[in-house]
C-alpha cells in the first residue's frame, strides 16, 4: 500500500513529474498502491524512446523477438498468484477471473505471439502485354508485412492484463515498439507486465509505460509526432476523439469500442443455455465488458419463461467480496461508475421498464457494488436498451418473427458481438450472417481465440486476435520484379 510506482521510459524506471495518486480497491475501498502521474514531457520522451528503438527492433530476427515474448510468457505464468492478487485488488475481479481470464490469458497471448509466422507471401505472376510501360513480360510479386513503427496502446480498465497483452504481444512480434497508456483506475498491473518484458530481454525503449489521471497523458501519447499508430480499447466517444487526432496525420488506427450486444432468442431455443449465456452479463466483470449480451430480444413464445428464468438466475448469484470463493458478482470499478449504472436503472423505471430482479444497492458495508438487474417490459426506443450501460444490467424486448428479430438487433449504433439462440441450426446461421456485427455467437457466448475480433459501425475499426492481429500491427508492402 505504500509502494510508489515509477514510470517506465526508455528502459529506465523514472520518477513521475506529476507525483502519485491512489489506486483504490473497488471491493474494500482501501489503497492498493500509488500510481505515477506522467507529465506531457515524459510522455513525449517515452514516444521518442520508442522511435529510437524502432529501427533496431524492427531489424531484429523474428525468432529473437519471439524468444523475448516466450520468456515473458513464462515469467508471467510463474508469478500467476502474485499478479492475480494485484489484478484482483485493482479491478475487484473474482479470484477465478483474475487468475484465468486476466493474468492467465495475458500469458497465453504472449505465448501465442512467440510463434513465428511467415511475414511474406507470393502473388500470382502476371503476364503483361507490350505497351507504354515496356516490353511484354511476366511480372512476379511478393507481399511483405512490415512493422508500422511506434504504436501507442491505450488500454481499458476492465482487464489490465489480457487487454494490453493483446496489443503489446502482436505489436512487438511484428517488430513495432510500443508506448502503453493504461487506464487510470488500474495501471499497476501493466507496470508488472513491463517488468516481465524487461526481465525477458526486451531492449530499452521497445516497451514504455506512462500513466496518469489527466486526459493530457493520453492526448500526448496519441498526438506525438513519433507515433505511427494508435490501438485503443474504450468508449466510442473517446475513440472518436482519438480518430480525429489520428486523421490529421494519417496515423493507423485499431479501435475496439463500445457494444450493446443483442441476444436473439427464438421460441425453439434451449432456454437453459440461453439463460446461462446471457447471465454472464451479471457475473463476468460485473457486466463491465463490451461483448456482453445486454440487449435480449425474446420471441414471444418463450418471452415470459425467459424473463422468469433470468430473474431467478440473477437472484441466485452471490454479490460480495471477490476474495470469497463463493462470490460470483464483485464490485464495479469505482463509486462514480456505480452511480452511473444505478442512474440507468432509475432511468429504465422512468421509461416504463419493470425491474424484475435487482434494482437496489446491495446491503454491504463497503465497496462499489451493483446488484444484478433485469429490466422487462422494455421497448427498443428506451435509452436503457439503446445505450451502453457497462454494468450488470440486462434489458429484455419481445419480438414476433425472424425478420423483426433481425431488424431490432440491427437497430443500434453498435455492432461488436451479437448472439443467436435457436434449436434450428440452419436458421441460427442464416440469422447470424444477416446481423451487422463483427462477431456472432451461435448458441454460445464462448470465443475462438484465433477468430478475428472487432466491430461494425460505432463499435470500432479493424480486427485483431490470432493472425489478424499481426495484420493489424503491420503495413503490407508489395515488391515487384520482371520474371
Automatic annotation (TrEMBL):
Residues 13-479 form the Aldehyde dehydrogenase domain. Keywords: Oxidoreductase. InterPro entries: Ald_DH/histidinol_DH, Ald_DH_C, Ald_DH_N, Aldehyde_DH_dom. PANTHER family: ALDEHYDE DEHYDROGENASE-RELATED (PTHR11699). This is Aldehyde dehydrogenase family protein. It comes from Streptomyces iakyrus.
